[in-house]
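COURSE: Structural Biology Practicum
ASSIGNMENT: Worksheet 4, Part C
STUDENT ID: 0417
INSTRUCTIONS: Below are two proteins. For each, the amino acid sequence is given first, followed by its structure token string. Answer the questions at the end about the second protein only.

PROTEIN I
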Amino acid sequence: MKSGVVAEPTLVLRSPPAWDRLSRATFRVRQEYHYAYAAPIHDLRQRLLMLPPEEHGGQRLLERELRVDGAEDMRMLSQMDRFGNVVYHVSSPTVRTLELELTSATCDFPS
């Protein structure tokens, strides 16, 4: 099994922000996971804990989207755990490669 996570920062600041005058900041996060198996995997059951709760410590989750490719007859269910985290359950009868991409996960940090 081969997997990997690549972080590509895209934030470029010409000068530091004036933190004392900043009332809001929005952060966009993109996570990708790629799995390639030597032989087909049968009865895949993947549990993904990838997002924070809807609200936590003054932070608010604004939007989320999960894309899954490579799984045949895939089923996906999202739910909240007892801590309020978003948990995805992905299952498929057969998988040779699996790509998971969480796009548009945006958190708003009000002051």
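PROTEIN II
(use this one for the questions)
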Amino acid sequence: MEAQATTSEACLTELREKIDDLNERILGLVQERAEVVLEIASVKRASGLGAYDPRREEEMLRQLTAALSGPVGAADIREIFTAIFRACLAIQDRVDSPP
């Protein structure tokens, strides 16, 4: 019984390390995305365009959910990416209106 527990713990540790690695990769991509969003915001400002484009947001959500495969469903993907979109808009607002 103890050998099985040790094997389970080792497996759990390995899986948690994978999750930690994935979290770091996702974080890096979110930061990179935010940097690109700020570049887009700069171009929009120079062109006199607003920061928020609901049609573009919906288009991105449609693309993200069009060909899903795996355990994460469309509603979950929409929720995750909508949160990312909102965070990026908040970053733009902070840059556009510093305290």
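ANSWER KEY EXCERPT:
Q1: DSSP finds three helices and no strands in the chain.
Q2: The CA atoms of residues 15 and 21 lie 10 Å apart.
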